[in-house]
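step=encode ok
step=design start
structure_in=
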């Protein structure tokens, strides 16, 4: 049997999360208060997922997502359903530019493995049925490297970080196979941790490891995860510097990680944040091999509703083509529109205008 490879990432693509409609906010509140059941909340979510799938297809996107409508956070909802990981309410939230996030995190409580009853598998099967072959159903999950974020690793359970990495790799290998068996052919790993390794102010774990050691470990974890994956499963990485109610967590160009991660990570594409000066210039892209990963330029911001100038976006694509072949470039917003249930500060109408803008510019640039 011949294998048909998905063309992803697409010339016009997007990171995945979408603004939650008021109906979901209300239903979630009512479910917490005991007014409606979890099943009734799920029905509301399903109705809205059907609506936004239709809308994505209508504006011309070839890859569609469920908007992450069943999640509260872009990462915690997936991670806390792995064996050996639990979610918990923290004493304080994370610090973003001028604000503190909601108080929540995950921590390592036992040996890590993939949970075969992980709810994301059922969620994808239902989502894929909604898409019904009209577009490519894209699945997004946090990168395995998110489990190396500060405060997650329990050294009493895993004194040796290499043992910790080994179990994470196996858990994610099993996750990728489970998603594949459920029908996933386009998977995105969201990786704030890797982008953080390029930040000038990165805090290294108790001084035990250098930046270079952690970059090397991050590469080995991703590439280990991808070993033996099905040939027709397209996997991309999205690098982000934080996205919480239109704010950001840190800054720094890709220069420090490019020679290792951009050059050697065995993914099919990189979604790279390039919507403002915090991301630096395009020069680090020269480390990506000419026959290597596609580069999805996030030069359209999801943090506000102001529509970019079309000629400026085209100019930036042309500038990036000095370092990556033009035919290996794609276009998307720099991040999702709602990395958490709270969402960014723009309207749903502005969100759709942004995504339609990406589709229109991509058609003009690549045909």
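sequence_out=
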């Amino acid at each position: 049997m011949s294998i048909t490879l998905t063309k992803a990432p697409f010339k016009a693509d997007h990171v995945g999360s979408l603004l939650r409609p008021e109906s979901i906010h209300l239903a979630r509140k009512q479910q917490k208060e005991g007014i409606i059941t979890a099943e009734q909340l799920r029905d509301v979510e399903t109705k809205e997922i059907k609506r936004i799938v239709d809308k994505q297809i209508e504006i011309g996107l070839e890859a569609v997502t469920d908007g992450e409508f069943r999640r509260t956070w872009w990462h915690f909802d997936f991670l806390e359903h792995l064996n050996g990981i639990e979610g918990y309410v923290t004493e304080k939230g994370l610090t973003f530019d001028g604000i503190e996030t909601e108080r929540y995190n995950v921590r390592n409580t036992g040996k890590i493995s993939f949970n075969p009853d992980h709810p994301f598998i059922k969620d994808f099967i239902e989502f894929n049925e909604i898409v019904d072959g009209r577009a490519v159903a894209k699945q997004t999950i946090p990168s395995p490297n998110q489990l190396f974020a500060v405060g997650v690793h329990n050294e009493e359970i895993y004194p040796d970080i290499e043992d910790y990495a080994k179990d994470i790799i196996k858990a994610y290998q099993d996750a990728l196979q489970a998603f594949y068996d459920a029908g996933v052919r386009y998977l995105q790993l969201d990786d704030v941790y890797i982008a953080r390794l390029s930040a000038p102010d990165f805090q290294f774990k108790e001084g035990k490891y250098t930046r270079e050691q952690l970059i090397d470990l991050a590469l080995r974890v991703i590439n280990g995860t991808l070993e033996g994956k099905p040939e027709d499963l397209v996997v991309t990485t999205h690098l982000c510097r934080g996205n919480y109610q239109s704010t950001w967590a840190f800054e720094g160009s890709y220069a420090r990680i490019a020679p290792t991660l951009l050059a050697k990570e065995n993914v099919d594409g990189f979604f790279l944040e390039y919507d403002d000066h915090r991301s630096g210039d395009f020069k680090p892209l020269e480390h990506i091999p000419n026959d290597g990963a596609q580069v999805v330029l996030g030069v359209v911001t999801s943090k506000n509703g102001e529509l970019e100038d079309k000629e400026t976006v085209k100019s930036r694509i042309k500038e990036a083509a000095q370092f990556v072949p033009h035919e290996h470039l794609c276009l998307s917003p720099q991040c999702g529109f709602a990395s958490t249930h709270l969402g960014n500060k723009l309207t749903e109408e502005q969100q759709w205008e942004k995504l339609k803008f990406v589709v229109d510019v991509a058609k003009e640039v690549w045909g």
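step=design ok
step=annotate ok -> Residues 66 and 180 are 17 Å apart (CA to CA).
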